[in-house]
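Worked Example 4.2. Consider the chain below.
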Amino acid sequence: MKRPLIIFFSCFLNWIYSQTCGCLKKPELKSLISCKPTIFKNKAEIFWEYNCNSSWITFQNGKKEKKIFKLEKELIEFSGRLGYINWTEYENSFLIENSIISGCCQPLEYILYSKKTGEKLAELGTAVFKNDLGKHPYTLTMQRGDEVLFTNLNNNKSCGIKVPWKKIEYTLKNSDKFYAEELFENVQLKNGFLSMQLKYKDSKNSKWKKEIITFNTIKCYK
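Applying the procedure from the previous section yields the following structure tokens:
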């Protein structure tokens, strides 16, 4: 019984001491940055590391190890609040939530990475909606004004949904909304058909109107 325990603790200590996680000059960073790894179902790991000069996120799968994000010395205190702030595992990938600013209220960016290699697969754009429920997780993002991008998070395939950009542009100029992403609501996916509401204004003093946008997502599941 002793031998398996020795092997276990030896592996555990090797992992602990292979990480760079501390700065004697700034002990307060320990409460701000957790170096605890997220272990994916394929045994790949992702975790924060830091020293006194920078903080970074490391992806590791077996012997393959790479930095996927870094904050320089003057921004270490913003780790977990600026740039890559969260990640979620999916079938073949993991999705990064990227915060352009620290604080409120600019939409997050979604960035997709391979769970096997740690390579960046796609910059999906700014977040409109994310669904993690059920067997068909997906995101809706904006990359350009006249299109919302639907991404199937099981196979990483994306499909564009045309949206009325002139209505969106006019609404942003004549309302208290700053971002187009705020104008979409009531997103639903049923039997492969996506529907969402776009709220817009015809004039500065007009009441809010709603337009339903529908899209057949079947081609994104093939």
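Residues 20-80 form one domain. The chain has a mean pLDDT of 91. Compare this with Example 4.1 before moving on.
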